[in-house]
Amino acid sequence: MLRWLFVLLLSSCVLTSATAQRKDKRLQKEVEALIKGFGGDIGIYIKNLKNDRVVAINADTVFPTASMVKVPILIGVMDKINRGELSYHQELKYRDSLLYAGADILGSFKDTERIELSKVMMLMLTMSDNTASLWLQSLAGKGDRINQLLDSNGFVATRVNSRTIGREGARVIYGWGQSSPREMATLFEKIYKGDIISKAASDKMLRLLNRNYFDIAAVSQLPPYATVFTKYGAVNQTRNEVLLVKGASSLYTFCIMTKNNKDTTWKNSNEAWELTRKLSALLWKYFEPKDKWKAAVGAEVFD
User: Fold this and answer.
1) Which position among 68, 179, 204, 242 has the lowest Cβ density within 10 Å, counted as fewest Cβ atoms?
2) Is 226 among the domain residues?
3) DSSP characters over 75-98
């Protein structure tokens, strides 16, 4: 009973803080116009970290995370390393029992092959390798331990559901994990500011989040000289992306999450991915109006 009272009080504090945030009214109107008519449910949260002005559209609605759940898993592993229970470069032994069927790199390993923990983490984040991710979820203390860490850092919507006792019902609704646009963007902000686990742990997480292979959506609309920390997530009816972007004069974070999408295709022209590109391009031009970069002619050949 006391725990639920604490969660309710924490939720109230989060909502009060969210309500008190200053809105960027001009940008809010531009984003609302951009997403009008989208074929699905959509949530967006944008924060200018230079002046704390925000745009919020269904920002506290809970969505499936898909592979964005790998950021909470990362936090769980980093906490174990920080406590001395794991070592960043320790050698691990891969076993066939870890295989999660799919096109993962780690899943192509032979039984008993060895690999460093740091490389498994790289595969989870850079390549979004599911076999690596489930292995790391277990090493982190499983979903319930990761959820405790999220709870202790003030996150009430973000949870790991898959293979987590007591989260079976949530898994049916949201899949592997769940979050809201506000919480995912805020998680990146906290990591950037060094507020998750420790400054050293947060810095290492930023380095890992700066190496994302998936760059056909939001990242494709940013110049290659921008600093970008990001994670995406996608299943048939869900396409998500969260970014923290640092330009010459800007620093902003944004998260777009969708569900119940009518367009479930896996082509680059998927409606949600197209919208994500348009949103990313709009934000870069808004926050970096003096920058003249635009995608080079023929760039689509490499997407």
Assistant:
1) 204
2) yes
3) HHHHHHHHTTSS-TT-EEE--GGG
